[in-house]
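#lab-general

N.A. 3:47 PM
ok so I finally got the sequence cleaned up, no stray characters, all 278 residues accounted for. can someone with queue access submit it? mine expired

B.Y. 3:52 PM
send it over

N.A. 3:53 PM
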Amino acid sequence: MDFLSEFLSIILTFVLSLELIHIAAGSLVGFVIGLTGVGGGSLMTPILVLGFGISPAIAVGTDLLYAALTKASGVFFHHRQKTVDWRIVGLLAVGSVPSSLLTVALLEQIKAAGFNSDRLMMLTLSVMLILTSFIILIKGHIVSYVSHRHGESRAVRVLKAYRPHITALSGAILGVLVTISSVGAGAIGSAILFLLYPHKKPLSIVGTDIAHAVPLTAIAGMGHVHMGSVDYDLLIGLLCGGIPAIYLGSLVGRHIPDHWLKGVIACLLFGMGVKLAL
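B.Y. 4:20 PM
back already:
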C-alpha cells in the first residue's frame, strides 16, 4: 500500500509539474481530431507557433512525435478491421522514408552553415495550411468524382500503368513536406490516395493513409530529435491532454454531423496559413 501511495504521489507531482496550457492545447486538438478526423499537424503546429510563440523547428519536431504516438492506436484498429492496404503503404514508404531522411540531413546542413531554417519552415507551413484548407473543403467532391467516374480516358490508362511509380513519387513529396512542416500526412495524403485508387472504399483509404503516416511522422520526428528540435515537456503535456480527448471526440462525433465543423476548421487553417506567410 505504501508503494502504491508513493507511486500515485510521483504521478500526481509529475502531472502538476506540466504546463496546464499545454495539456489544454493537446486536449483541444485531440478532441477535434476525434470529432472530424482532421489531422493534428494541421492544427497543432500553427497553434504552437502562433499561440505559444514556440520556434517553428521545435513546434514541427514536437508535433511530429505527437502525431506518430496519437495515430499509432489507429493503425492497430484499422489493421484489425482489415482496412489497411499494406502494399500501398509500402509503395508510399519507398518514397517517403528516404526523402524524409534526406530532408533531415539537408536541414542539418542548413543549420551547420549558420542559416536560420525557421523562415523556410514558416513558408512551407503556411503553404501547406492553405492547401490543406482547400483539400478539406473539396475532399467530398473528390470522393464523389472518383467514385462515379465512368470510362477510361488516356490519362486514366496512363495512371493505371504507372500507378505504383506515382504512388512512390507522391510518398517522396509527402516525406519532404511533412518533415519540414509536419503537415500533409493526413488530409493531403488521403486526397492523393482517393485520386490514385478511386475504387477503394473510403475507410480503406483512411486506414492506409494512417498506417503510412505513423512511420513517416515517427522517422521525421526522430530526425528532429537528432537535431535537438523537440521539447519533451511540451510533448508529454500535449499527449496527456490529447490521447483522452481523441477518444472523447470520436464518441461525440458519432452523433453530430461534422461537415460544418470541417468548414470552420478549413477557414481557420486558411487564416493561420495567411498569418504565417505575412
